[in-house]
Amino acid sequence: MKVAVLGSGNGACAVAFEWAKAGHRVNMFDFEDFPKIINEIANVGGIYAEGELEGFQKIAYAGHDIAKVMDGAEVILAVGPAYSTAAFGNACKPYVKEGQIYIVCPGSCAGSIVFKNALGLDFEDDIVTVSETSTLPYAVRIVGEAKVAVYNRLKGGYFFATIPSRLNDQIYKVFASVYPECQKAENILQTTLQNANPIIHPSVTICNTALIERTHGNFLFYEEGVTDGVGRVIEALDLERVLLGKKLGVEIISDPVLGKIQGYQAVENYSEGYSKAPGFKGIKAQPQLDYRYFNEDAGFGLVFFADLAERIGLDVPAIDAVLKLSSVIMGRDYKAEKARTMESLGLTKYSMDALLKVL
Length: 359
What we know:
Blueprint: E1 2-6, H1 10-21, E2 25-29, H2 35-44, E3 46-51, E4 55-58, E5 61-63, H3 66-70, E6 75-78, H4 85-92, E7 101-104, H5 111-118, E8 129-133, E9 138-144, E10 147-153, E11 159-163, H6 168-176, E12 183-184, H7 188-193, H8 197-207, H9 209-215, H10 228-247, H11 255-262, H12 272-275, H13 292-295, H14 297-311, H15 317-330, H16 334-337, H17 352-358
Parallel strand pairs: 1-2, 1-6, 2-5, 3-10, 6-7, 7-8, 11-12
Antiparallel strand pairs: 3-4, 8-11, 9-10
């Protein structure tokens, strides 16, 4: 198949590498604002990988020409942070053709709906399908010119959903041809809430704010950044997330249990489960506070979790507290920005009962 990968960050490079490895013709696109990695891939003609993916895979095209990347593309994977989803959808809008498969990886809280809205399609329109995953299939970092290190390729414990969900089985087969360990979710509420990044990244960042500012991230985010006390903060948010899922009728696996299934963690607890996790070993902290661990995981993820909780009358004091502290530290009001809410998704026309039926 002809596969388009939108993005050139850590995850996008790993995704492009693995779809090429699976025998597909892969083209990569990113916006002109992000030339470095996409140009490196173009210069060497592909992507190198080390760790749990190894070798070199040829990329047919890497550049800024979205028309070239979308020409004949059957599967289009948008791989980037939550704030890139709408931009990628807008870029693809002129090239929509019936039967295309779009996958937002990861969905980062209902990213499939954001993408479909950007394509100018109704939520229930099935001229094309838009799906999402609960998380990336990898722990991965770019470590050199057109080169990634894959610290962990997930062994399971991540989920795939399509809107509308009645089409999930047929689209899942395409994704599972490369990622057979991925599981079908009930709907996008499950993929959204099963994403643990919003409960981990802001919590660890808040507890290590001074260290990040003082060292510019020169420490190990999980191995040195998570202690018993930090683990208790993560746990408080995780318990609220699991309860939120229960109230919405979807089963959410607690993160240490899920982390063990995924191959990240060796023990199922909230302290050593992270600090001694094989899949997190060697991952450095972010170089500054102005980073996706706040801007995406609090500004989109926790905002959406809190919005869902408010709509069903569920108190989530730990989520609210971490969201508020994230805002204070960054000098902005993530909740007021409403980057990802039921309203911003255009879903307020549905009651929660009605939404669960159409999902």
